[in-house]
Amino acid sequence: MPIGSSSLGDGYSMRLWVDYLDYHYDSDGLEVRAKAPGVEASIGHQWPVSNGTVGVSLGPSYRDTMLTPSDVKSSVKGSQWGAKFQLEATNRVNNWQGELIASYIGGPESYWGRARLTYLTARGLMPGIELIVLGDPEYRATQYGVLLGNIKLGTKKTLAVKLGIRHNSGGNNDIYTGFEFSF
Hints:
By secondary structure, this protein is mainly beta. The chain contains no helices and ten strands.
């Protein structure tokens, strides 16, 4: 969301993020399941560049990771606060748009990155593909998916719906889904 009178793409912005991770991993031959709701808030700035934007943001991050069964060696279990730093860039050429985002959270030492390519259709929708990498000291995943973005929910609100396959560090594959709201 833009802050004050600045417009998204050339000024200050605020981002609120709520997510829920559900994954499992191997710990000395025992399968441990993690359920980890999280929330983040950040303040950032975006600059216009040729055909796109470049941005940076910083803010607090909170995640509560519950492990079943308990893994005493886990460094990410329980409640953790951290500072999130994020870089992002978008570029549009004709109807094609590319996006790159990379973030790091100090504290739980986690990372998340996404590359996305979408196409703006005559109806204003943006179908596309994405590659996501994420992890922490005990977990890594790679996600490959498709999405449909720019679904209008009002004059400045949009929705993106995504679906794909997640390959977890434990060797198994899962389906992932997501909804992204932009204001």
